[in-house]
Amino acid sequence: MSDKFVPLISSGVAGPLGILHLPRLWQKVSLEAVGKLADGYPGIGAGYDAMVLGALGIDHEACKKFIADTKPNYPAFEKWVREQAGSKVNKHNIHKLNVAILGYIHDDETRKGILAASGIDDETTVCPDAVNLNNLDDWQEFHAAVIK
Questions:
Q1: Residue 148 has what pLDDT?
Q2: What is the pTM of this model?
Q3: Which domain holds residue 53?
């Protein structure tokens, strides 16, 4: 088995705070902190990672440092997020962020590339949203790295 891991927590998963993608962000940054994040995956990228941290007002480097220094389990990470975000952790902001995450659609080139890598014809699928396309991409990467 590879010593690097494809993150398999979906962006469509939330922890107790109800924030979609936050568990995936934690997993990716945690893996990166110990040198075990699969190649091609950023610890904190410009997409959902930036959306979540931006909505919560959390500095990217502070997040990386906290995880690298303390290696928190997920509940401890959520506690830190709540402390850092303060009043930004509220039903209105979380709902608005979650709607943005679920409503994000990849551009045509990205969608077609992800589908093609998995052998799926773009014309035969109704899977346009980024959460599900990213899941498909992760599953393909996992299969290639671990199963094949």
A1: 80
A2: 0.94
A3: 1-104
